[in-house]
Amino acid sequence: MRTQVGIVGAGPAGLMLSHLLHLQGISSVVLESRSRDYVEHRVRAGVLEQGSVDLLRATGLGDRLDREGLRHEGIELRFDGESHRVAMTELTGRAITVYGQQEVVKDLIAARLAAGGTILFSAEATRLSGLESPSPVVHYRYEGRDEELHCDFVVGCDGFHGVSRSAVPDGVLHTYERTYPFAWLGVLAAAAPAVDELIYAHHERGFALYSMRSPEISRLYLQVPADEDIADWPDERIWAELRTRLETVPGWSLNEGPILEKAITPLRSFVVEPMQWQRLYLAGDAVHIVPPTGAKGMNLALADVALLGDAFAAWYADGRTDLLDDYSRTALRRVWRAQQFSWWMTSMLHRLDADDPYEAKLQSSALRYLTTSPAYATSLAENYVGLPAV
Ligand code: RFL
Ligand code: PHB
What we know:
The chain is of the alpha+beta class. The chain has helices at 12-23, 36-41, 50-58, 63-68, 88-92, 101-114, 235-246, 297-318, 322-349, 357-372, 374-385; strands at 5-8, 28-31, 47-48, 70-72, 75-79, 82-86, 96-98, 118-120, 123-129, 137-142, 145-150, 153-156, 174-189, 199-201, 208-212, 218-225, 259-273, 276-277, 280-282, 288-289. It has two domains: 5-46 and 100-173 and 274-345, FAD/NAD(P)-binding domain; 180-267 and 353-385, D-Amino Acid Oxidase, subunit A, domain 2 (D-Amino Acid Oxidase, Chain A, domain 2), CATH 3.30.9.10.
């Protein structure tokens, strides 16, 4: 098979890139190791920055998002038995939209298939070759056979565990990373959200987050130790811990309901530089991971491929290489802003070291400062809703 741009991975990055290329008249094929059903039902991110919403609308994907997405103009911080609102829209003029990642993925798949695009599901890329030539190849397994996808460029959008990054020879890439001694236990519950806005709660037993997906579905997270086993968390224990960490304000209680799904995700900060080698471009979680506290992962993936869409358009329209050459440098500016913001939010809100009361005092002071200083709160708000330029 031959196409102009070969894309590995049908997450938000790969699918959005294929959609953007199609709008520019550039052909692409997306290879995805999982089934369509699997990627459409994988519960992950939920917060779209203003810039991501603008991109989805501008490329014809705004209809269901505008009908079902929940626009939020603030977030709540809970700590020391108090509750404070960060009025994001008042402070920045911008807002976030709560709309599940799997809904973005469904909308993108539907748009690509309606336009006659090719997404091969259950097609696992096994290796890349010829990246230094004008015609690189993605080798993949499909329906029990070894196949080849020949293209002008390969874009690795295959997430943290994908194969694309490892096609770059040793010594080229630099890795920057941080692991945290805790993870998030995330649950999806058939319970009406008890609030209109997200609650980020700092508690001596650990961080908790109250989010949602719709007027009927809540999405909740608990900080747990990094090596925690989900089998040790029956539903009753999860609800009890959520109540302890979130019901800290007099007269407020959460709504409980059947837990539809639960999983534990480790927290990690990770960046690989540069994001390109020869004819291979890397985007999204394949080259950078942020802890979810800043809600940046999916937004960064979309921002990467927005740059790539313009860069390939310039190359195919008039042979311009400047945008392709600048891709890594330009993308990394936003990536590092999100890294710092996500690390800062994570450090401020989680229980770090139980034996270090000094850390806990710093956290309380930072949280209190956010509630008294518009300048500090604006810094949080403008990063959270997404900076137009970085
Ligand atoms: P994805 O979504 O991981 O997609 C990669 C795809 O590549 C496929 N693949 C392969 N396909 C073919 N051949 C191979 N060899 C392959 N290897 C892998 C995989 O099956 C997959 O379909 O990466 P992408 O597109 O870069 O998107 C990144 C986002 O998914 C990720 O950053 C976010 O989910 C992170 N994240 C959040 N981001 C936000 O912006 N806001 C949030 O509120 C937010 N909350 C979260 C999150 C991630 C979480 N988890 C579970 C990691 C909350 C959680 C709990
Ligand atoms: C979510 O709704 O899944 C969510 C919201 C905010 C975050 C992370 C995840 O910071």
